[in-house]
Amino acid sequence: MPMIMRTAMLGGVAMMLASLPAQAATMKVVIDKLVFTPAEISLAVGDTIEWVNRDVMEHTATVEGGFDVRIPAKKSASIVVKEAGTLDYYCRYHPNMRGRIVARAK
Amino acid sequence: MSVRISTIFAAFCLLSPAAFAQDAPSDPQIAHIAYTAGVIDIEAANLAVKMSKNEDVVAFAKDMLRDHEAVNKQALDLVAKLKVTPEDNATSQSLTQAAAKERDALAKLDGAAFDKAYVENEIAYHKQVNGALETLLIPSAQNAELKDLLQTGLKLFQGHQQHAEHVATMLE
């Protein structure tokens, strides 16, 4: 394929991608045996984080001076990410459980 | 040092690797010890809910109740599934006796003195249980599912120890 044609096609694909509306995504963090997995997630402002608690005990996802989400045993809970930045969170009941959220601007 | 720390320590000394060098606890004994350790913390928490007027201490005690009841139920479900009958043993008995003595000592206190003693004992108790889990109970467990539950129990107890340490700083 001539180089110019290939470039044109790639350009077309790039334009199509660029024209798609930005869709808010949902990222799942599973809690199993007192561990957040994945321990670190990267997402964009406007995306949702859903914690799925497989343990028989309640947990929280808590940011010092920030959000405090209760995740009952065998249930899920979610929040929408409002601001860009890196947030370290932990479980208030079991502070040895830790996770990190890296949120980029939309 | 409070009665509980010293007597619980003595009880766990029965669990020292040396004492079990030739005679490691069996799975039915391990299941009984782990369950007993949970029951002891539930009973201490019940006392704290009744005695304490401090919001943070009562909230912590209720967390202990909720978690240990849930995990002990999980443990009972597992032993039923494995058809293992937990077997009473000298370690479980001395743990129970030591804990009863400690509860009597705690019950004689009130107010800030009670809160401080309860939380300090929670830190010490969880530390002792963690030590026993790490050095003896987990390595001795034969059944993979029992070992796995004990490993989860260790993470839970480590979490409680940190939680208790945090509550202790709030009482200062």
Please outline what is shown here:
The complex is a heterodimer of chains A (106) and B (172). Chain A is α/β, with parallel strands linked by helices.
Describe what this molecule looks like in 3D:
The complex is a heterodimer of chains A (106) and B (172). Chain A contains one helix and nine strands. Chain A has 106 residues and is an alpha/beta fold. In chain A, 23% of the residues are buried. The model of chain A has no long low-confidence stretch (mean pLDDT 88). Chain B is mainly α and 172 residues long. Chain B has a single domain, classed as Ferritin, core subunit, four-helix bundle (Ferritin, Up-down Bundle). Chain B has helices spanning 3-13, 27-51, 55-82, 90-107, 111-140, 144-171. Chain B starts with a helix and ends with a helix. The A-B interface holds A 33-35, 56-58, 73, 91-97 and B 63, 66-67, 70-71, 73-74, 151-152, 155-156, 158-160, 162-163, 166.
